[in-house]
Amino acid sequence: MTTTSPVWHPFTQHGLDEPIIEIARAQGAWLETQDGAKLLDAISSWWVTTHGHGHPSIKAAIKTAADRLDQVIFAGLTHAPAETLARELISCAPSGLAHVFYSDSGSTAVEVAIKMALGFWRNRGEPRTRIAALEHGYHGDTVGTMSAGARGAFTASYEPLLFDVARLPFPSAGREQATLDALEAACTAEPIAALLVEPLILGAGGMLTYPAHVLREMRAICSRHGVLLIADEVMTGWGRTGTLFACEQASISPDILCIAKGLTGGALPLAATLSTAAIFEAHHSTDRSRMFFHSSSYTANPICCAAAVANLAVWRDEPVIGRVRALSEMQTRALERFRSDRRFTAVRQCGTITALDLRTRDAGYLAAIGPALGAFFVARGILLRPLGNTIYLMPPYCITQGELDHVYDAIGEAANRFATAP
Ligand SMILES: *Cc1c(COP(=O)(O)O)cnc(C)c1O
Question: How far apart are CA 409 and CA 206, in angstroms?
C-alpha cells in the first residue's frame, strides 16, 4: 500500500513507512496477498482464527444467517442464534455460569465484566469499586481495560483518566507465593470488588506463563474474601492453552468469564461475558434503576451469533480437542532444540502457544527489533508479530508439521541474524 491511503492502522507507526501488506484472501493457515504471495498465518490473525481461515461450515452458517436476519435491536427483542448460543455457552463453560451478556470485542467483554462486578456490589448495598489485577496484564484498549492492564508507553497519554487498581506482582517461577500474599493482603486491607486475571498465560504482556495451582489459589483467596473472580479468557479460550478454557486446568469456575476472539472461530467479531446467577440476581428487580446499564448497537448481531453457533458445532462434531493436543505435542517437540540454544532465553509453552525471547541488544515492545524480526519472517513467507524480542507462535489448529518446521527453521535463521552473544 502507498502512504496515500487514508487508513489509520492499529498499533502502527505510519511515520516509519513500514510496509502494510494488502491481503486478498485466506484459506486454512494461509493468507494470500494482493499480488499472489502466500503468508503462513502463525499468529492466527491476532489470535482469533482457531480452526483455520474459511472453515466451510462457519462460512455456510454466515451466508444462511445473512439471508435470514441481518441485524436487530437486542433490547426487548431476541432471536434464535443468540438464544441457542447462550444455552450452548453455558453448557460448555466452567460450571456455575448461568447468564450470557453479548458485546462485540474482547475489550467490551472485559468492560462489561467490570461494570457487572461494580453493579453487583452496589445493588447489594455494599458498594465496592476497587479492582485487583496482575502486573503485566492486558485486558484491552478502552479506558477501563487500560486501567486494569499494565501501564507503559501504550497508556502514557491517557494516564490521568485511568483508574487505580490493586496491582499484584506477576507469579513468575519461584515467586508465586508473593502474588498470593499480595492478593491476600489487598483483600484484607480494603474491600476489593473483583480480581481480574488472564488464566495461565498473559498474552500481550509478553506470553508470560504461570502454573494452574496459582490460579486455583487465587480463586480460593477470592472466595474466602467474597471477592469476585473475573477470568479474562479472551485469548486463552477456545483451546489455545490445551483445554477449551484455561480455567479447566485449575478446576475452577470464575464468577465472570470473558470470551471473544475465537468465539466465532475467528470469522466475525463477537464477545460474551458470562456471569453467575448471583450477579444476575443482584441486578434482577422490579426497580429499573437496578438494571444492567450497558449495550452496544450491534449487541448479539444475529450473523455473528450464527457463526459462533457453527463454531460450537465444529467443536462438537470434529476432533478439535484432538487437534489441539496434537498441535501442543508438535509444539513441544519443535521447541526442544531451542531449550539448550543460548541465543534464546525463557523458552516456554502453554498448550498450543509457544514463546521464546531472543537475546538482543534492545528489548521491550517499542524496540526496533520487533518490526525488524517481523519483516525478516515476512520475507520468508511467515506472518509473526514479535512482542519486542519475544517471538511467539499461536497457530491455527490446522497447521501441519511441515509448516511448523518452516516457522522454527526461520526462527533459527533469525537468531543467526539478530542474536547477540550471551
Ligand atoms: C485481545 C485481548 C483483549 C481485547 O480484545 P479485543 O477484541 O482486541 O478488544 C482482552 N483481553 C485479552 C486477554 C486479550 O488477549
Answer: 22
What is the distance in A from the centroid of ligand 1 to the CA of 235? 6
How many angstroms separate the alpha carbon of residue 311 from the centre of ligand 1? 19
Task: Give 56-317's CATH code, choosing from 3.40.640.10, 3.20.130.10, 3.40.630.30, 3.30.390.10.
Answer: 3.40.640.10
What is the pLDDT confidence band of residue 392, given thresholds at 50, 70 and 90? Answer: very high
pLDDT reading at 234 higher than 60: yes
**Tens digits of per-residue pLDDT, 274-286?**
999 999 999 999 9
The string of DSSP letters for 28-40 reads BTEEEETTS-EEE
Taking the CA atoms of 57, 271, 89 and 290 in sequence, report the sign of the dihedral they define.
negative
pTM for the model: 0.98
**Which is the closest atom of ligand 1 to the Cα of 203?**
15
- Residue 382 has phi, psi (to 5 degrees) of -130, 130
Domain ranges of the chain: 14-54+319-418, 56-317
- Residues within a 6 A CB radius of ligand 1: 105-107, 110, 138-140, 198, 203-204, 232, 234-235, 260
Q: Which atom of ligand 1 approaches the CA of 232 most closely?
A: 13
The CATH homologous superfamily to which domain 14-54+319-418 belongs is: Aspartate Aminotransferase, domain 1 (3.90.1150.10)
H helix or E strand, kind and range, residue 357:
strand 353-358
Nearest CA to ligand 1 atom 5: 106
Q: In this structure, are strands 353-358 and 344-350 parallel, antiparallel, or unpaired? A: antiparallel
What integer pLDDT is reported at residue 366 of this predicted model? 77
DSSP one-letter string for 76-122: S---HHHHHHHHHHHHHSPTTEEEEEEESSHHHHHHHHHHHHHHHHH
Radius of gyration of the chain (CA): 21
Domains 14-54+319-418 and 56-317 equal at CATH topology level = no
Q: What is the pLDDT of residue 1?
A: 46
